[in-house]
């Protein structure tokens, strides 16, 4: 079990068991399922128990995964509905103009002139690109596209600077 919740990133959820030997199906949330092969272990469920990966394969929108700790269908079925996490240190390094959503949530949102708007509460993608959900200082919620026309600069661990808007 891992102790620091902030060091974990949600990457999927177990959708069910497959076969008789303890294989599980994972709905993987990342864009590229082949990235899963770089993980040797994951954490599962609210207790964040560590499971080492024996093997995996990609099946449409799911991953079929065998863990060393699970060897029958009954044990696999107990994991259905549980969230799957990796440690932040398992993520690959990004280029200068790339960010993990996890790193942006909670950042302050300001204009170029320093006028504070609010904080980033969530990031969504409905198919046409990422959308930032911003909780304004007046507690209302606004959404803006996450692109270079609206987001002018990102200073990690501090703030996001956006174009001047009239909320």
Plain-language structure description:
The protein has 167 residues and is mainly beta. It has two domains: 5-90, Elongation Factor Tu (Ef-tu), domain 3 (Beta Barrel), CATH 2.40.30.60; 101-162, Roll (SH3 type barrels). It is 5% helix and 47% strand. The chain is built from two helices and twelve strands, in the order βββββαβαββββββ. It has helices at residues 73-77, 101-104; strands at residues 8-18, 23-28, 41-44, 49-59, 62-67, 83-87, 108-111, 116-125, 130-136, 141-145, 151-155, 159-162. A six-stranded antiparallel β-barrel has the order 1-2-5-4-3-6. A six-stranded mixed sheet has the order 10-9-8-7-12-11, with no helix packed on it. A hairpin with a 4-residue loop joins β8 and β9 (130-136). The longest helix is centred in the middle third of the chain and has 5 residues, at 73-77. The mean pLDDT is 84.
Overall average pLDDT: 84
Count of discrete domains: 2
Strand order of the largest sheet: 1-2-5-4-3-6
Write the CATH homologous superfamily of the largest domain.
RimM
Biggest beta sheet attributes: 6 strands, antiparallel, barrel
Write a concise synopsis of the structure shown.
By secondary structure, the chain is mostly beta strands. Strand 4 and strand 5 (62-67) form a beta hairpin. The protein has two helices and twelve strands.
């Amino acid at each position: 079990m891992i102790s620091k919740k902030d060091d974990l990133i949600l990457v999927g959820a177990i959708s069910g068991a497959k076969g008789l030997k303890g294989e599980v199906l994972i709905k993987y949330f990342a864009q590229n399922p082949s990235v899963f092969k770089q993980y040797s272990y994951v954490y599962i469920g609210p207790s964040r128990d560590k499971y080492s990966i024996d093997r995996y394969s990609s099946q449409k929108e799911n991953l079929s995964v065998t863990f060393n700790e699970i060897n029958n269908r009954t044990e696999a079925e107990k994991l259905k509905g549980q969230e799957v996490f990796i440690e932040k240190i398992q993520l690959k390094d990004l280029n200068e103009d790339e960010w993990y959503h996890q790193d942006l949530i909670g950042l302050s949102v300001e204009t170029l002139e320093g006028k504070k708007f609010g904080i980033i509460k969530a990031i969504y993608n409905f198919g046409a690109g990422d959308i930032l959900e911003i909780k304004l200082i007046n507690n209302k919620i606004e959404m803006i596209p996450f692109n270079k026309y609206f987001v002018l600069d990102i200073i990690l661990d501090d703030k996001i600077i956006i174009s001047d808007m009239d909320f």
